[in-house]
Design goal:
- The protein is built from eight helices and ten strands.
- The chain has 259 residues and is of the alpha/beta class.
- It has one domain: Glycerol-3-phosphate (1)-acyltransferase (3-Layer(aba) Sandwich).
- Helix 4 links the parallel strand 3 and strand 4.
- The two termini are 20 Å apart.
């Protein structure tokens, strides 16, 4: 019941207050709401590494993708505007709400769409925004890191910005990896919510890796940026690091938000 009330309050804020707020004010509201949502669900945070700030300008946040919870977790630490698959924009009500929250939509089936989205991301970053993508382009069970899609790593090159790798890992009460939050396979969104709410408490480890500044230290292509971010996140999660080119995909599909 508390979560339902909190979600309703969030919808009211999006509809009434959010459009009139400045970007920094939106970030503050989003962070507070996300922190409270995690608290209601019994999820605590364990943060390591150097947090670049609650809304760092000209930054592309990249993280491994496990669950719809990832959005709340990241926004409770470092607020970002997310890249979402274009199908979500057409959803009744929710598509509009996600749109006004500042999401950028991409058609994963159109190779040309990546170039357009890169320009949109770069402009937003230059204007002071922190954007976020999930380069695996899908969710995993959290036990490893899937190959990264390099497409949207072009944006920080266009904006001369920073790529901030973030590793996410969900732990149960016993301190071991838990797969309950994983939004994978045939699990529906509502089934996933019920699975998460059935767990009395969880901890999520949020590790900020080394910030990667585009064009510095040989970071001059989207493939190098993607590979370095992949290595950083895999190392933080203590999973095998793919050292060949298979760790980074050159295909166009990019990270999405599974709402």
């Amino acid at each position: 019941m508390r979560l339902c009330i909190h979600l309703f309050v969030g919808l009211l804020i999006l509809v009434t207050r959010y459009p009139r707020l400045l970007e920094t004010e939106r970030a503050i509201v989003t962070r507070r709401w996300s922190l409270q949502a995690l608290k209601i669900m019994g999820i605590s945070l364990n943060i390591s590494g150097v947090n670049p700030g609650f809304y760092p300008p000209n930054t592309l946040l990249v993280a491994n993708h496990v669950s719809w919870l990832d959005i709340f977790v990241l926004n409770s630490c470092t607020v970002s505007r997310f890249v979402a698959k274009s199908e979500i924009r057409a959803w009744p009500l929710f598509g509009w709400l996600i749109h006004i929250s500042g999401a950028v939509f991409i058609d994963r089936g159109r190779r040309s769409d990546a170039a357009k989205v890169n320009k949109t991301l770069a402009k937003a970053m230059k204007d002071g925004a922190c954007m976020a993508v999930f380069p695996e382009a899908t969710t995993s069970d959290g036990s490893g890191v899937l190959p990264f899609k390099a497409s949207l790593f072009e944006a920080p090159l266009l904006s001369c910005g920073v790529v901030q790798p973030v590793a996410l890992r969900y732990l149960g009460v016993d301190g071991a990896l838990t797969r309950e939050p994983a939004y994978i396979g045939d699990v529906t969104f509502w089934q996933s919510i019920r699975k998460v709410l059935a767990v009395p408490s969880m901890k999520v480890e949020v590790h900020y890796g080394q910030a990667l500044r585009a064009w510095e230290d040989g970071l001059e292509t989207r493939f190098v940026l993607a590979k370095q971010a992949y290595r950083d996140i895999a190392k933080a999660l203590n999973v095998p690091i793919e050292i060949d080119e298979g760790a980074v995909s050159i295909s166009s599909p990019v990270g999405q938000v599974n709402p």
